[in-house]
């Protein structure tokens, strides 16, 4: 009988932490119309706060990656979740627009950026010699699982009790994750007395060198591959977090759908993305990652062309189904190419 590998405990803790933290990214789409009604803020003003958060979310990636290299995933997860909790707690008492900019823009943005895709890729490459694409795909699916679990519930709470209850839900989820991370998360296989999953009995010098290889950002920025991947992932972030994640629910409400119905479409999108991202992880281990990315972005473009003319609920759910398959499917091949290059 094979001994249970501690890597799967690390996967479970990381998955749940990503699920809770990244569900926060979907919250603005649920509460935008409520903020407009309560405070009289314009859609543009609220969107600017979300844009600041997406900017710091992006900055949290390289910052989090640097801190992971120096302090390990466990501490980064703890600090990232603590920042999210502090930001959401402050958001419950927000009264002025500048407070929205400050809270959503800095602690929530940096926290969700730190507990994001960079973290999942780092954990996969530290703890696994095989099946890395599938593991990264599973971590990408955590984002979608968070939407599937939290977005409909947040919409129901917003309609029935108010937007602060919706924020309180994700606040509680992120706060609860602090304990499992502190107790069960480990930085490297050696910390649990194990080898990386799939590692042979003898670890070659080349494998050890690969584990410790790092590329400074300044050096990476002098390569064409870095800019190609950065530009394509910019498009990924704009169309996922920026466009659909933030504005799909308000857009659907303005097209005659109820908030709960629009949130259900987002939940369907999230559930299909679990399928799409896991499948993408499997494909990443087997096919040319560059060709996969080209296909994913082309497929996404075709889906978005149809969105502005959708007014029927059947077509809204069809869009969610089709777009969901491709939403975060770009993460496994992108992360794998970065690690390989």
Overall description:
By secondary structure, this protein is an all-alpha fold. It has a single domain (7-188, 205-340), classed as Growth Hormone, Chain: A (Up-down Bundle), CATH 1.20.1250.20. The protein is built from 17 helices and no strands. The chain has helices spanning 7-23, 27-39, 43-71, 73-91, 97-105, 107-114, 117-127, 132-160, 163-176, 178-184, 205-212, 217-220, 224-254, 259-284, 289-306, 313-324, 331-340. Helix 3 packs across helix 6 (107-114) and helix 8 runs antiparallel to helix 9 (163-176). The two termini are 38 Å apart.
* CATH homology superfamily name: MFS general substrate transporter like domains
Strand content: under 5%
Tell the overall outline: globular
Portion of residues within helices: over 70%
Largest sheet data: none
The CATH architecture: Up-down Bundle
How many separate structural domains?
1
Average pLDDT, rounded to a whole number, is 84
Gyration radius, to the nearest Å? 20 Å
Number of helices: 17
- Which fold name is given in CATH as the topology? Growth Hormone, Chain: A
* Secondary-structure content class: mainly alpha
